[in-house]
Amino acid sequence: MPTTLPATLQKPTRDKLAKIGIINRFDLVLHLPLRYEDETQIVRIDDLQAGIGSQVEGEIIHAEIAFRPRRSLICQLKDDSGILFLRFLNFYPSQQKQLAVGKRIRALGAVRVGYFGMEMVHPKCRTAGENTPLKQALTPVYPTTAGLPQATLVKHIHAALNELDLPDTLPPEILSKLQLPSFADSVKLLHNPPPSIDEEALLERAHPAWLRIKFDELLAQQLSMRVHYRKRQQRTAPQLPAEGNLTAAFQKVLPFALTDAQQKVLREISHDLTRPHPMQRLLQGDVGSGKTVVAALAALQAIENGYQAALMAPTEILAEQHFLKLREWLEPLGISPVWLSGSLKKKDKLAAIERIASGDTLLAIGTHALFQSQVEFKKLGLVIVDEQHKFGVQQRLALRGKGKEPHQLMMSATPIPRTLAMSYYADLDVSVIDKLPPGRTPVVTKLINDSRRDEVIERVRNACAQGKQAYWVCPLIDESETLQLQTALETYATLTEIFPDLKVGLVHGKLNNTDKANVMAAFKANELQLLVATTVIEVGVDVPNASLMVIDHAERMGLSQLHQLRGRVGRGAEQSLCILLFQTPLSELARARLKVIFENTDGFEIARQDMQLRGPGELLGARQSGVPMLRFADITQDELMLNTARTIADEILQDYPDAARAHLQRWMANKPDYLHA
Ligand code: ADP
Ligand code: MG
């Protein structure tokens, strides 16, 4: 059945509908109300409560145009019980006429305590007669865009509801098991709530009709992810059984034993690698949980089988640090990794590419330069992506296309709350390192007002005098890289002046790579005592002797950023301290964030609270660009339903493939096609 919009629809309307995501008539059906207005009753002015949307009726007893604080129309509406002020900042002559003294008006809006008393700002007003009937049911209010009135939307939505066939995509067995209403009944009810409806449930989106829509949406998401997962399970990858010679030798020379948590994830990864299908596993572990050594062991399993492994990191600093570490670890085993980054001189780059292409090296480490088109691996068995959340989905997918199908291990230190992982990472297998290696002393966090900056400076001086090293993280300036750089340079200049006896270094994103590497090496070698840095040090940097960090203007940073930064200290046995310098006044969000980071050290808990503060979209970052976001369900609230959707998705794929197809068609037809990526 054609669901295209009616041919009679004019282009301007069509364009506006497209702007709010309505391309066909089915989108109209799924364009559900944002909220509902209650025009079924009239509240006495005396009974009005601030903050609550209400409808009142009365006579205009006064109307004037006032100029303080700015030109506005102010009316007084009177009923038997009292007087309410109506205020309009923008108004037309027609409204002035409608609201003239003596007119009887019904006004609907949120009530607040204003300058003169109770008031409504920009209420919806209609002229009322003595006996104008009240609405029988709640009035839906739709999300819309400028120039597209509610009435136009309502007209098209109702036409679509009447004309379209709305068969259920869920098999009856499943529906009755879940005790959910039919799809058709649900959308009809949400667009036209009957007078008898449980209003609270409707408004709270807890009504069975809402539950059905949310479930359908979650199910569609799970289905698409699981289809993707299954498709991958049908492709082939090299089998890389754990031979044990290299991995065992490596574990012998490691200066520490793997923790139970590391061993557990390693078993999961190792098992995946032995299978003839491409692994796509996400390894999560808080900052400092020891993911690098797990990555090294996974790489060795590929190498033992004569396959190449590639390790990619999002920043040059981190990639280089991995390179140095792995070279130190693996050269004694006769493996010499090759380094490849965009900043290499042409000659060295070509040499590196040649070693990769000829198979002369079995381990390549670098930035995304590793996956540019000139780079051809001879026999790539495993790709490891560190800090994968810093890369977009697109990049991740492009990577997969390279060479024959290699296994993929993605690592992330931004812990993803369980529901988020279940929802947006349902196409991946997930391993979690849930315990830090022993011997760590938790970092002490202090929040200090910028007015006490001098004390902080004294602390840095004392710490460095005792042979400790410190980071000073420069304020984040989102708007401009030039300003960011300028701030870093200024901070550096100021601190060098304040600490004439200390050796101070500076690292920032605009530094060329050799200089960057030199500064990091000097800091690591304890030749610098204080490192002034921008957030380039956010990921991965590992200098155990650094035990003090000052984060300047911490209120500007996001939670995961603060957590990552703080993770740079507390890496040695020494008690570490992280000082968050903040400037007042604090926004409410900034205050909430600082409280979370102050009270928590567990990355998972921080991530969970971050999701509550900002919503899942922000937390997903780059990933969201490739994955349809949820419109109706809310994974912070609908966790139980998400669990059910996941189970049912597998059941439907197994037992009712046609239903799965129909459901995906209905919900995903217009969405960016993640499945075929
Ligand atoms: P992340 O998970 O943040 O990437 P790293 O791999 O950088 O963490 O590890 C952090 C530090 O912990 C490194 O110095 C590493 O050598 C050390 N480490 C890793 N595993 C263990 C372990 N099992 N016991 C002791 N130290 C460990
Ligand atoms: Mg790391």
Q: Please give the alpha-carbon distance between the first and last residues.
A: 28 Å
What's the tally of helices? 24
What structural class is derived from the secondary structure elements? alpha/beta
Low-confidence stretches: 622-626, 672-677
Proper CATH architecture of the largest domain: 3-Layer(aba) Sandwich
Biggest sheet character: 7 strands, parallel
The neighbouring-strand order within the major sheet is 11-12-10-13-14-9-15
What is the residue-mean pLDDT, rounded to a whole number?
Answer: 88
**CATH class label of the largest domain:** Alpha Beta
Shape: globular
What's the name of the CATH homologous superfamily of the largest domain?
P-loop containing nucleotide triphosphate hydrolases
Number of strands: 21
What would the keywords be for this entry?
677 residues; binds adenosine-5'-diphosphate; alpha/beta; 21 strands; binds magnesium ion; single chain
Structure description:
It is built from 24 helices and 21 strands. The strands form 4 sheets. A 7-stranded parallel sheet has the order 11-12-10-13-14-9-15, with helices on both faces. It is about 40% helix and about 15% strand. The two termini are about 30 Å apart. The protein folds into 4 domains: about 10-35 and about 140-205, no CATH class; about 40-135, Beta Barrel (OB fold (Dihydrolipoamide Acetyltransferase, E2P)), CATH 2.40.50; about 245-435, 3-Layer(aba) Sandwich (Rossmann fold), CATH 3.40.50.300; about 445-600, P-loop containing nucleotide triphosphate hydrolases (Rossmann fold, 3-Layer(aba) Sandwich), CATH 3.40.50. Helix 8 (about 210-235) packs across helix 24 (about 655-670). With about 675 residues, the protein is of the alpha/beta class. The protein binds adenosine-5'-diphosphate and magnesium ion. Magnesium ion binds next to helix 11.
